[in-house]
Amino acid sequence: MNLKDLYINFFVEKGHKQIPSAPVVPENDPSVLFNTAGMQPLVPYLMGQPHPYGTRLCDYQKCIRTNDIDEVGDTYHHTFFEMLGNWSLGDYFKKEAITWSYEFITTVLKIPVEKLAVSVFKGNEFIPFDEEAYNTWLSLGIKDERIAKLIDNFWIAGETGPCGGDSEMFYWRSDEPAPDVFDPNDERWVEFWNDVFMGYEKCEDGTVIELPSKNVDTGMGYERTVSILEGKMDNYLTSIWTPVIKLIEQISGLNYDGNEKSMRIIADHMRTAVFISADPAGIKPSNTDQGYILRRLIRRVIRHIKSLGIDINSNWDQLIAECIMDLYKKYYSELTTNHDIVLEVLANEKIKFNRTLEKGLREFEKIVSKLDNKVLDKDLAFKLYDTYGFPIELTCELANERGITVDRDGFKEKFKAHQELSRTASAGKFKGGLAGNSEIETKYHTATHLLNAALKIVVDSNVHQKGSNITSERLRFDFSCDHKLSDEEKIKTEELVNQWIKEGLDVKVEEMSKEEALDSGAECMFIEKYPDIVTVYTIGNNISKELCGGPHVKNTSELGKFTIKKEEASSAGVRRIKAILEDN
């Protein structure tokens, strides 16, 4: 049985309800481009909002992290990965969480206890040493020498909010006998599961208080755990990846041995590109946000396809995508629903990049023809990388053929600065965003519902939300539409939203089954992400009725004046509105 099924079955037997995996593109969360952890879609509930499924939850969640995209190619980095998680929302706490983790590891997965070690929170000036977690592990048979007390075992989302110590589980991945004493700095100890105990709250003034209702958030890395269970030091040699790697070997006529880096990059990036393309948000390759990541992944794949000697114009992309979708469609229905869209996205981007590659080669020839000192400086090398997608290896290879030296060290410095800028931007997006349910952001949540309803009346009844992004400064709303809105349409939409605000309409919240909600006419963006019991927000006399996780105001009169600042194209068949709320 698949590890995902074993995990879900185990926690369902412990009274948990399985919830669907959220889409990879987060809804109404400007903090990150993608869901980066299993807990991220659950932050509102960890902050205190009641979950329609109750207080014990479990799932497997699709995640994407791209801050280490250039590290992919080694044995364990991935851009897409799955997290197995179970949660307690004010229900059980440390003893039960740790006991069940240990039971699943040793009884279900049959990992020998002599290959296990754990860590607990050492304590700091605000929060004491986690004696309860420490004693629980001792009672289960983990020796004191295998329990590390670490100051870093602390978790918080953003700078303030729920926080607490955590307890990590490690596996000894080596043919040598595990040492009696656990050394967390020994890389042969591999962390694969983490139980986070949110028993405190960090306040705006920096003080830490104990929470009356305590939560547990646990996460197990699927890929890493499978590699442990199958005894593989290379994740790409596990059963997760072997069908894809074998297909790449077949297409290229080459063996994995000796071509590991390119084949890993192709396999990893294709899997991520498939899931982004299949997401209900309708992401297409572009030069901004999620579309930029998708484009970058596909183009990096194409460069490595070329390095393996595969004909770029052959159907390699369709074959690999089909293989990936077959492997995952049992668990993620969007791969079946959006099957044709995935293949179309890949094919179109392949054609576009072929043209870019040709332009890049022409630019390279132009650059080297003007060199008088046979040295390609760092700025020109980086331009080829940044503008035309040339990896430094390709630039060096082409330069070497012409007897030209490349300032590779200078390029690395510029590249490192570029990476740091990207990471800083990502950190800025993440900072405070997960818990971003401030008063103004709550108003913007409700405003998007009114905007959606107004567009259906003014523009077309078939208008549907395709995505949204909310910050404390503005809302951004993507919607299906085949034309640029006229000035008259924008004015009428704005006037209608403001009319509903002035009318002071009540916002009603109800819980019901998903079927009842849909039968009642409630609209939602990602039907797959919602559990069987859903929250429905109704504004006025059915002016707007949507499935939503919230939060929302109680009455539209709280919103202030609504103003559309910009209307533009987002992607093919999708328009984007940016709007603000101001005090009347």
Number of helices: 17
Oligomer: single chain
Overall, the morphology is globular
Mean of pLDDT: 88
Helical content (DSSP H or I, runs of 4+): 25-40%
Derived from helix and strand composition plus strand pairing, the structural class reads alpha+beta
Radius of gyration: 26 Å
Distance between the termini: 60 Å
Low-confidence runs of at least 5 consecutive residues: 425-435
Explain what you see.
- This protein starts with a helix and ends with a strand.
- The radius of gyration is 26 Å and the shape is globular.
- Strand 6 and strand 7 (161-172) form a beta hairpin.
- The strands form 4 sheets. Strands 1, 2, 3, 4, 5, 6, 7, 8 and 9 form a 9-stranded mixed sheet that branches. A 4-stranded antiparallel sheet has the order 12-13-18-17, covered by helices on one side. It has a 3-stranded antiparallel sheet with strand order 14-15-16.
- The protein is an alpha+beta fold and 584 residues long.
- 40% of the residues lie in helices and 22% in strands.
List the helices and strands and how they pair.
Blueprint: H1 3-13, E1 17-18, H2 43-46, E2 56-64, E3 80-89, H3 94-108, E4 116-121, H4 131-140, E5 147-150, E6 154-156, E7 161-172, E8 189-202, E9 208-221, H5 222-229, H6 242-252, H7 260-278, H8 289-307, H9 316-328, H10 334-337, H11 339-369, E10 375-376, H12 378-388, H13 392-401, E11 405-406, H14 408-430, H15 439-458, E12 465-470, E13 475-480, H16 487-502, E14 507-513, H17 514-519, E15 533-539, E16 544-547, E17 561-571, E18 574-582
Parallel strand pairs: 1-2, 4-5, 10-11
Antiparallel strand pairs: 2-3, 3-9, 4-7, 6-7, 7-8, 8-9, 12-13, 13-18, 14-15, 15-16, 17-18
Helix pairs in contact: 3-4, 6-7, 6-9, 7-8, 7-9, 7-11, 8-11, 9-11, 11-12, 12-14, 15-16
